């Protein structure tokens, strides 16, 4: 039986918790995300819910259906390259985990099966929304489920109400971008080639295109930024900046930071590392509260 350990020292106090929201798309001819969640929660032993996705093992540890909402705690099991154990007045030593034991990096999630909206924590080293979708799809043999970032309506309105002049991108790993159509693949290949030529840990791209007035045509810009936002939300590419320099109707210059347009919020919670039930309960409660707050924007 697998064991796992929350990566923590003592009690985590005032931990930062960030939650983002995604719209789920499905194929009516295949299993839905709700079907996959039903299949997962029908397995009583959490160990039997473990699935290997790409390079790691993942599993939903706890949760279930509450009215029209599914909630759960989703784990990535770190089974090697463990961090050392450090005493306050002692040198670092090996963590010393026993056999069949892993570190558990976890995120709370919620899914509204009526509106098909997924809310999930975003934190370093923990699994992403795309990994949750891939994991759940394993239980129903479907490959037609996808999740797209929900952008704040106000930010969409800002982009529609200004004249774009320059597109800005800063990215460290363009090879990680998930490209689907030809335009996306061409843009990805161009970024990869630029990174090889520059030989830097990241590249910064600023492009002004279009008419003699120095405007960037909106056709294509929305599609490009939406694709890059999806990759950023799924932690692909290590995107550090995605913004648009624009001119407002009153001719005032402005910068739209699109990385902050993804619908969600953050807070600080007291999350005890020695009480998994309370730890999950507080994170789940925050996810629930955001579903209530943003229900008009889904």
SSE blueprint and pairings:
Blueprint: E1 3-6, E2 12-25, H1 33-41, E3 51-53, E4 56-66, E5 69-78, E6 101-112, E7 117-121, H2 129-137, E8 146-149, H3 153-160, E9 163-171, H4 182-198, E10 203-207, H5 218-233, E11 239-247, E12 253-257, E13 264-271, H6 276-293
Parallel strand pairs: 1-6
Antiparallel strand pairs: 2-7, 2-8, 2-13, 3-4, 4-5, 5-6, 6-7, 9-10, 9-11, 11-12
Task: Pick out its properties.
33% strand, globular, 9-stranded mixed beta sheet, 298 residues, 6 helices, alpha+beta, 13 strands, 2 domains, 26% helix, 4-stranded antiparallel beta sheet
Report on this model:
With 298 residues, this protein is of the alpha+beta class. The protein has two domains: 182 residues, no CATH class; 108 residues, no CATH class. Helices cover 26% and strands 33% of the residues. It has six helices and 13 strands. The strands form two sheets. Strands 1, 2, 3, 4, 5, 6, 7, 8 and 13 form a nine-stranded mixed beta sheet that branches. A hairpin with a 4-residue loop joins strand 6 and strand 7. The longest helix is centred in the last third of the chain and has 18 residues. It is globular, with a radius of gyration of 21 Å. The two termini are 40 Å apart. The relative contact order is 0.19.
């Amino acid at each position: 039986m697998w064991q796992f350990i929350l990566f923590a020292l003592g009690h985590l106090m005032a931990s930062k918790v960030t939650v983002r929201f995604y719209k789920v798309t499905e194929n009516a001819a295949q299993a839905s995300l709700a079907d996959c969640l039903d299949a997962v929660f029908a397995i009583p032993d959490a160990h039997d819910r473990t699935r290997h996705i790409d390079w790691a093992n993942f599993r939903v540890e706890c949760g279930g259906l509450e009215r029209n909402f599914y909630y759960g705690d989703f784990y990535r099991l770190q089974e090697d390259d463990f961090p050392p154990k450090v005493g306050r007045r002692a040198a670092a030593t090996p963590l010393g985990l026993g056999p069949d034991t892993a570190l558990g990096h976890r995120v709370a999630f919620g899914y509204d099966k009526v509106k098909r909206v997924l809310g999930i924590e975003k934190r370093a080293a923990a699994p992403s929304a795309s990994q949750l979708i891939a994991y759940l799809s394993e239980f129903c043999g479907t490959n037609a489920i996808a999740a797209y970032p929900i952008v704040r309506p106000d930010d969409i309105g800002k982009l529609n109400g200004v004249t774009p002049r320059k597109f800005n991108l800063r990215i460290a790993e363009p090879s990680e971008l998930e490209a689907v159509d030809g335009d996306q693949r061409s843009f990805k290949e161009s970024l990869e080639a630029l990174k090889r030529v520059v030989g830097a840990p990241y590249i910064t791209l600023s492009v002004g295109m279009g008419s003699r007035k120095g405007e960037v045509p909106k056709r294509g810009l929305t599609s490009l930024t939406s694709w890059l936002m999806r990759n950023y939300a799924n932690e692909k590419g290590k995107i550090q900046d995605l913004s648009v320099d624009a001119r407002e109707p009153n001719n005032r210059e402005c910068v739209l930071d699109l990385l902050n347009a993804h619908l969600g919020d953050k807070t600080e919670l007291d999350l005890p590392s020695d009480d998994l039930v309370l730890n999950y309960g507080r994170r789940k409660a925050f996810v629930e509260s955001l579903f209530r707050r943003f229900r008009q924007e889904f």
